[in-house]
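>> received
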Amino acid sequence: MTTHQNRGARAALGLAVAALVAVGACDPHSTGSGGSGAGAAPSASGVDRTVPDLVGKGLQSAQDAAQAAGFRHLTSHDATGGLRHQILDRDWKVCFQTPAAGATASTGTTVDLAAVKRSENCPATDRKPPAKVGATMPDFTGKGLLAARNSLPRDAKVTEKDASSRGRVVLLGSDWTVCSQSPEPGAAYHGQAVTFTAVKIGEHCP
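>> returned
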């Protein structure tokens, strides 16, 4: 084939490719980024759906129900404020949810589930971890012992005692709830030693 014929063949091939690209751009069923048909990718913000009622369900079942309703972004936390991790979801139950059941929300919204262990009663409200200690002592009563400890400076001297008469050793702070504290709530804090008395979650303070 001559040089002139090679140039002609390449030119014809280029025209054919350009025609195919033009047809694809005009095709209403194209799934490319510029298409607007059914095959176009959904927006990152998701679509509006009704949030299902997840309170009272086991944590695993609640997560499955949320995903079935289109909500894929899920998180969970300890409703007691104890900072316990939900390692085995099937051992936990949902007490509170955000957004609330029945609300209309984008499927891109994160659904937050506040849970306790199945053997425990739900608290009256979703207990958030206490604020960091500043110039005065917060009220740690009813808060998780681990959360209270984490609110103090790292170099704070902390003593933890069993508030019951059983004299148990406080080993895992995430399983205990604060009954009393010294210094008292509202007292000035300037690095002095802190003492907590506590009972296990689900127990009543004396």
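>> The chain has three helices and eight strands.
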